[in-house]
Amino acid sequence: MRSIAEALDSMLPAFSPLGEEDVSLTESSGRYLSREVLACIDLPPFDNSAMDGYAVRAGDVASANRDSPVRLLVKGESRAGGPLPSLLEPGTACRVFTGAPMPKGADAVVIQEDTDYDDGWVDVREASPEGMHVRAQGSDVRSGTLLLRVGDELWPGEIGLLASQNIDRVHVFRRPKVALLSTGDELRQLGDALEPGTIINSNQYVLSEMLRALGAIPVPIPAASDTLPEIEAALRKALEADVVITTGGVSVGAYDLVQDAFENVGIEPAFWKVRIKPGKPLAFASYLGKPVIGVPGNPISAMITFEVLIAPCLRKMLGDPRPHPQPVVARLRHPYRRRPGRVEIARGFARREGDDLIVDLHRLQGSGSLPSFVGVNALVILPSDRAELRAGEAVRVLLWGPGLRAERSCFDDL
Ligand code: AMP
Ligand code: MG
């Protein structure tokens, strides 16, 4: 049976980016750049004032101080978005406001607070060296320089930078279409009548949301019953997507037919079973290079195996050069006894207490117990070889869902 690391090692090479598309900047959030972006204009695009005050020649006010201010004739004004100011003559000042273009000839700004205005003249009470309070053209970005690299994820900051460059379309890696095929005679869709012995196909809804959160496109396939012809037909349909995820029917029961169906359709198995709890019976296979993953039907097993094994692969496919989650370290509040042998991904609640992150494990840890994922913000990684974990012991935690939030602001004591 493979460790989680070995399973990831065999899976990751099957998930390469699918090529690129160009999208509008307003649709690009969360996508990964497939081409580098060079600056096409300087930022700021023109010399402008960082403050409200007067644009001056630094030399004219070099001797100014409180006791002997320098008097300058005020000629004209420049405001953000206003007409461009004319050349600043020696011995004069130009009224400026934040963001206003600097007049040619001016090389510094004196802030309004250091001046006194009187009937067309201004007394400057402080010297202002060359460049003071001036945002020079190109001081943030020079046209032609590298702005963003291949693999950079577009967050609001990156989108703002591109917008400031007047770049309205970007090349990003394509989003994989991921077919979701649930198997099981007992499964019903939302809104169906639940006759005795049937359950809602909750995996479908959970995994769709997990895919969407990553940036992949879920392609729901109607659930297949536990018969080979039906699973095979549904698999053929699912194989039109870029990746196939099946749920259920992948274990050793008499009605677990997914692996036989894989074989009949020509999907080649790579491995089956991973040392992870919950989620051991996980099948990884491929069809003409296309990844096919069979996760167990138990809802928590499906979610955990998706998060731990499938999500990093899909992030890689989306173009993320850092597809692996980084854990934080937390301390267990209570001791925990368990059967060693597999890495366990327990659900819990993490919160900061003083300088420590403290995690409480959920009282429910069953692989089928959907309430065990409600309100949870921590997936707690318990090493395979440990039978007993002590209270206060440090463990790795993957933040999940809402992450670390609090009722009180962290600025209260600052
Ligand atoms: P299986 O992996 O098919 O042996 O299913 C294991 C358990 O998960 C059984 O209790 C199933 O009823 C349940 N299950 C299977 N598929 C789903 C699904 N799509 N949504 C919710 N529960 C499921
Ligand atoms: Mg089943």
What do these coordinates show?
The protein has helices spanning 4-11, 156-164, 202-214, 228-238, 258-265, 299-317, and strands at residues 20-24, 37-38, 48-49, 53-56, 70-78, 92-96, 108-111, 115-118, 121-124, 134-135, 146-148, 169-173, 177-183, 187-188, 199-200, 217-224, 243-247, 268-272, 276-277, 283-287, 290-295, 328-332, 336-337, 343-353, 356-361, 378-382, 388-389, 394-399. The chain has 414 residues and is of the alpha/beta class. The strands form eight sheets. A six-stranded mixed sheet has the order 7-4-6-5-9-8, with no helix packed on it. Strands 16-13-17-21-20-18 form a six-stranded mixed sheet, with helices on both faces. The chain has a five-stranded mixed barrel with strand order 22-25-24-26-28. Helix 1 (4-11) crosses helix 6, helix 3 (202-214) packs parallel to helix 6 and helix 4 (228-238) crosses helix 5 (258-265). The structure holds adenosine monophosphate and magnesium ion. Magnesium ion binds at residues 184, 248-249, 255, 297.
Keywords:
six-stranded mixed beta sheet; 6 helices; 28 strands; alpha/beta; binds magnesium ion; about 30% strand; single chain; binds adenosine monophosphate; about 425 residues
